[in-house]
Amino acid sequence: MRVEVMTRAGCPSCVTAEADVARICGELGVEWAAVDVDGDPELRAEYGDRVPVILVDGAEHGYWRVEEDRLRAVLAP
């Protein structure tokens, strides 16, 4: 599994989401990455109003905040 956090610079909620995802994925041994939506016009058009957006294996899992129990459930082996 791979988790991505769609973010943008200057977004306090994105910083919090990245920290939450880093902690959870670190504990579970799951790869994750942050992607700045402002670096790609298509990503900015898709996610720009809703960052942070959490994707799991390319599918949207949630946005604006990390639902820890729900994310752990989907990532658990």
UniProtKB/TrEMBL annotation:
It comes from Actinokineospora fastidiosa. The lineage of its organism: Bacteria, Bacillati, Actinomycetota, Actinomycetes, Pseudonocardiales. SUPFAM superfamilies: Thioredoxin-like (SSF52833). This is Thioredoxin family protein.
